[in-house]
Design goal:
It is a single chain. The chain has helices at about 15-25, 40-45, 65-75, 90-100, 110-155, 155-175, 180-190, 200-210, 215-220, 225-230, 240-245, 270-285, 290-300, 305-315, 360-370; strands at about 10, 30-35, 55, 80-85, 105, 325, 335-340, 340-345, 350, 380. By secondary structure, it is α/β, with parallel strands linked by helices. It has 3 domains: about 10-130, Rossmann fold; about 155-320, Hypothetical protein af1432 (Orthogonal Bundle), CATH 1.10.3210.10; about 320-400, no CATH class. The strands form 3 sheets. It has a 5-stranded parallel sheet, sandwiched between helices. Strands 6-10-7 form a 3-stranded antiparallel sheet, with no helix packed on it. Strands 8-9 form a two-stranded antiparallel sheet. β1, α1 (about 15-25) and β2 (about 30-35) form a beta-alpha-beta unit. α5 (about 110-155) packs antiparallel against α6, α7 (about 180-190) crosses α11 (about 240-245) and α7 crosses α12.
Length: about 400
């Protein structure tokens, strides 16, 4: 939809008179964008990929409709695609239908009322597709967020690593132009869920990248099966489960699981999580970002080189780095992000770095503080806090330690 509420339609045809006539006839019902050929349409979609419907002529100079619609399917997978063609082009039209997942085939010449009926049907199809996707994303992510909240209580270290992974993978997916981002974001949030089955001291070892013994490694090796058991009954999570299955697999095929899947056969999300988690371990051990990336680069064959380079660029060119500040607990407020682990006076990890502050978390902090003695000040990132935001009062302020 555009600002005027009309669906956006892309018409691609080398017959300029036809395009002008279509614009005149459809302008009250649609926002019509035109392109005189496949190549120009591809360039247009690089900057304007959001269309409800894409209609292309079959035979055009330079790039034919089959090739263009194949590109359009990759660039705008939610757009409904239709094909214009002359009556003698049926063999080529069948190929276009197979390669471009065409919703409807329209023969020329086509009266405007019949063409508009086809556009109306395509727009309704687009509405159904996007409504289902939005419902799926919102429902799943809401459920996953609830599960992640439980993990935050049970294992702060595991939750913190998942929270940091989600932030990194969101930036990576945007940088790498990943069109279907919800599976990788959900996978990042669920990546540490199976850690609830591990002893807390083993979770701490994994958090700091410490060596484990044979019995502990056996428990770690069972985590993928446990993850599958936890998520196996949730519908529509198949792509997420595949990412999690291969999240520890090396790009050259080494690592777990031991099968023949490698390289580009691995899900993009799994390749990204492998880089993100290995980097996170190195940084948790106290290595600077530069040293950590040098270590990752020295591990020949372990990582997707494109993803490794993209993550290095993101970390090296953050654009607007968040402001770091050490503050007392009473000044912590929603929207801040913990930039350092929060521990008790005895060294117990309570909140892992990377976790965003919420109102419920503030309540937990004040519940922890009297009994566990949280070390102060705490280091937070305040880059996402609007300047005009006021200081919230801590819950049960009269009971807060002074």
């Amino acid at each position: 939809m555009t600002d005027n509420g009309l669906p956006r339609v892309l018409l691609v045809d080398d017959e300029l008179n036809l395009l002008e006539a279509m614009v005149r006839g459809l302008r009250h019902s649609y926002t019509v964008v035109t392109a005189p050929g496949g190549r120009s349409a591809v360039e247009l979609m690089r900057s304007e990929p959001v269309f409800s419907v894409i209609v292309s002529d079959l035979r055009m100079p330079g790039m034919d409709g089959v090739t263009f619609l194949r590109h359009a399917r990759q660039m705008a997978p939610d757009a409904v695609r239709m094909l214009f063609s002359g009556s003698g082009d049926f063999d080529d039209a069948i190929e276009a239908v197979n390669q471009g997942a065409i919703f409807r085939f329209i023969t020329k010449p086509c009266p405007l009322p019949r063409f508009k009926d086809a556009l109306d049907a395509a727009t309704e199809q687009h509405r159904l597709i996007t409504a289902e996707r939005v419902l799926l994303e919102q429902t799943l992510q809401g459920s996953v967020k609830a599960l992640a909240g439980v993990l935050a209580l049970v294992s702060p270290a595991a939750f913190g690593r998942g929270a940091r992974a989600r932030q990194s993978i969101e930036e990576l997916a945007l940088r790498c132009n990943v069109s279907e981002r919800w599976p990788v974001e959900v996978a990042a949030m669920l990546s540490q869920m199976a850690c609830v089955a591990l002893p807390l001291d083993l979770v701490e070892k994994l958090y700091h990248g410490l060596a484990v013994n044979e019995a502990e490694q056996a428990m770690i090796d069972r985590l993928p099966a446990l993850t599958e058991e936890l998520l196996g009954n949730i519908p529509r999570l198949e792509p997420v489960r595949k990412i999690l299955l291969y999240q520890h697999k090396q790009y050259d095929g080494g690592g777990s699981p031991q099968d023949a899947v490698r390289g580009e056969e691995l899900p993009w999300g799994a390749r990204a999580l492998k880089v993100i988690f290995d980097l996170d371990v190195l940084e948790t051990q106290g290595n600077s970002a530069g040293i950590a990336f040098d270590i990752l680069s020295s591990r020949a064959g372990w990582y997707d080189p494109v993803i490794l380079k993209a993550l290095a660029e993101i970390r090296g060119n953050s654009g607007h780095p968040a402001q770091m500040k050490e503050i007392p607990l009473r000044e912590v407020r929603p929207g801040m992000v913990f930039a350092q682990d929060v521990k008790s006076a005895r060294g117990l990890l309570l909140i892992a770095r990377g976790q965003e502050v919420t109102q419920s978390l503030i309540e937990r902090i004040w519940n922890f503080s009297p009994t566990l003695g949280i070390k102060e000040p705490v280091r937070v990132s305040i880059g996402n806090i609007p300047p005009e935001a006021g200081e919230p009062q801590p819950p049960h302020a009269s009971e807060a330690p002074v």
